[in-house]
Amino acid sequence: MSFEQALQQAVFDTLSTYPDMPTVYDDVPVNAAFPYVVIGEDTHIPFDTDDSLGSESTVTLHVWSRYRGKKEAKQIQALIYDALTRQSLVLDGFSLVTIEFEYSECLLDPDGITRHAVSRFRALIDGQEGS
Length: 131
Description:
There is one protein chain. The protein has two helices and five strands. It has 131 residues and is an alpha+beta fold. It has a single domain (3-129), classed as 2-Layer Sandwich (STM4215-like). Strands 1-2-3-5-4 form a five-stranded mixed beta sheet. A hairpin with a 5-residue loop joins β2 and β3. The protein is elongated and about 50 Å long.
């Protein structure tokens, strides 16, 4: 498993089992019930040392809500923050050095009804021994 897959799986597993978290998706099915969380875009750059290979990665999470106002979306963002920030996520084949909150925002979708809240986290991953 690559570090990209390991990080996504760890985020999915952590959020999916976190108390009061709505359904978490990688691919949202048609007619999914609101609210829900989507694991979105990620970035990865080398975080190598003299004796190991690693990654500095970001993962973006999207909250979708039809609640009138921002309250529900922001409450879910708070759950995501608590579930991930500086937690010890288990990555298959890799070690998580840290995962830190980077930013968040809450927007009204162009449909005028749906709230779209975005949060991004930065993870440092250490894993394979260098050759």
